[in-house]
Amino acid sequence: MDAFLRLHPEDNVLVALKMVEAGTPISIDGRDVVLTDNIARAHKIAASPISAGDVIVKYGMPIGRATANIAVGRHVHVHNIRSDYTPTYSLRDTDGVERKAS
């Protein structure tokens, strides 16, 4: 698994060490997975199944919660997690208009 790194043994995400393209086969903890997303360098993928509401752990520390179910090998980023610790400064409604969060 030379393309991804687990930063701490308790992490449920892996960090990409380089750009990895969708369709790339990898092995995560003995489980063979084919990536369905392009993963940019320094972005995260799920190392194990993560359910909506589960805590995301990176560096052995909680960094936020899943807002949707995330399968093994799927991209973990702002589209499917939210921070419990950092305020959101803007929101984008379904009409695409950006508004300040209150």
TrEMBL record:
Residues 11-82 form the SAF domain. The keyword Lyase applies. Keywords: Hydrolase, Lyase. It comes from the Bacteria. The keyword Electron transport does not apply. GO terms for molecular function: hydrolase activity. InterPro entries: SAF, SAF_UxaA/GarD, UxaA_altronate/galactarate_dh. It holds the Pfam family SAF. PANTHER family: ALTRONATE DEHYDRATASE, ALTRONATE/GALACTARATE DEHYDRATASE. This is UxaA family hydrolase.
